[in-house]
Design a protein that fits this description.
This protein has 309 residues and is an alpha+beta fold. The protein folds into two domains: 110 residues, no CATH class; 177 residues, Jelly Rolls. 23% of the residues lie in helices and 18% in strands. Strands 1, 2, 3, 5, 8 and 10 form a six-stranded antiparallel β-sheet that branches. Strands 4-9-6-7 form a four-stranded antiparallel β-sheet, with no helix packed on it. β6 and β7 form a beta hairpin. α1 runs antiparallel to α3 and α3 packs antiparallel against α5. It is globular and about 60 Å long. About 2% of the residues have low confidence.
Length: 309
Amino acid sequence: MCEAAAWAALANSSQTGSMLAIANATAALKQNNTNATVAWWRTEVIKLSAALNASVGAKQISNQDSTLNVATMDTPLSEAPFLLERLREIAQISGPGAEADRLSAIEALVNHTDPGPGGFYDKLGAEPGLAPHLSPGEGYLSDPSFYHTPLSGGPTYRCLDSKHRLSWQSYAMSQFDASSVSLVYDGLDATKTYEAHVVFSTSADVNMNGYPNRMRLVAGGVHVWPPSPWAPSPCVDTSANSPCQYSVPPTPMAKTRVPIPRSVTANGSLTLTCSQPPGVGGGGRTCQIAEVWLVVAGTTDPTKSGGPR
């Protein structure tokens, strides 16, 4: 496949029209660029998998995937599955104003990471260098158990799910009471009002020890998400660390709009922190965040993410 050519075709949609851009992008994504070397390695992996299964025996690997991930070996490590599905949906838009609607949807895909004028974007997760505002904590060398360091992760079960962008399949997360996921911004315009658009990962409804993955966001010491107090009813305890102040991540995954009080950014800086309720059992494993846009309020529509509907 040629993902770069597909994105180039979509970026040129205003000149070519939406349907031709979709057709060109789809054709590029469906190109088969497998060469002889790749085919040889694929054959070798399958042979080694079969030999390992035969030599180790079913009893020893009974609690593991007997395919040893061979079943997902051909999964493209790109936006191709998501793009093909989304372009198919966009092509089906019809009715009055359909061309404008299709072009708008394509623009949302192409400009997914654009935070608008005066804004900031961070992709949290396994890709280095894409989250310049993520606080590194103590770092894994001095904190190998990640007590005070955000940990990158990603769910493997979504690798074939065309409803999710590649950027939504990895995230930064916290573990333990002392851990948090924090983003630090400087150089903000004190005369502007900001809001954060946050993509919480919904890879699991509970953490590894069976406790709900509840979390909250604090901006400059001010509770900003979830709307306080969060309920299901009854939830009457509004103290600072009450479970009422925390929520599970929204489902399905989408941008969550989080207003930031102007008083918080009046000094030109902001620290946005996600944490879990104190005393959660096990390692915690919460605050799983894939993407964050810090935008000037009113300059960017949080519903136009180019992501799942």
